[in-house]
Amino acid sequence: MIKLAVCVSGGGTNLQAIIDAIDNGTITNAQIAVVISNNPGAYALERAKQHGIEGICISPKEFETRDAFNDAFLKKLDSYQVDLVVLAGFLVVIPPQMIANYRNRIINIHPSLIPSFCGTGYYGLKVHEGVLSRGVKVTGATVHFVDEGTDTGPIILQKAVEVQQGDTPEVLQRRVMEQAEWKIMPQAIDLIANGKVTVEDGRVVISE
After folding, report:
1. Catalytic amino acids?
2. Cα(113)–Cα(65) distance, rounded to whole angstroms?
3. pLDDT 10s digits, 147-169
4. In this predicted model, what pLDDT tens digit does every residue of 7-61 receive, in sequence order?
5. Alpha-carbon distance 42 to 112, whole Å?
6. Alpha helix locations (H) across 85-124?
7. pTM here?
8. If residue 2 lies in a helix (H) or strand (E), which one and from where to where?
9. C-alpha–C-alpha distance, residues 46 and 96, integer Å
10. Whole-angstrom Cα distance, residue 192 to residue 153?
11. What is the DSSP letter of 178?
């Protein structure tokens, strides 16, 4: 049984998808040890509480420097001795020391088909605004390991979603969440929890 830390900044819809997937058996061999937010008002913390999961807030605003926050964040995370860190809408830059300590043990969900519409500046609705302004016909979501770059780590899973005529960024965001994000994030966690994911030469290999 692997232990997860889920890091969130907002409503926690991806967190809810993970909780539901553990409850219904889509995710096996995994449990959430802690939910960590940088935002004291994040509804994700309420979701954790409702499901009997420990939820904590560590806000950069409580520290004089970013380095002090990074140190405190890493110490708190280390204290839970988790096997996998899941970034589920976590709008905080992950410190290099944490990436080094948890190499290929941090995963992130990004609401596009990487390498399209990703990298610095592409987050939240901005991703979907970019998709619509470019006029692409297919978008989607990507689960990837986190490395030192922005959305540059090894890709684990991707799922395509059709862009429809008349979509607004908000409508498209919801479709990508429902049809892709909430499906492939639990799927990726289940694969990792059952030892089916390895990284070779910077690429993910999934075994049967």
Report:
1. 110
2. 34
3. 999 999 999 999 999 999 999 99
4. 999 999 999 999 999 999 999 999 999 999 999 999 999 999 999 999 999 999 9
5. 23
6. 96-101
7. 0.95
8. strand 2-8
9. 29
10. 16
11. I
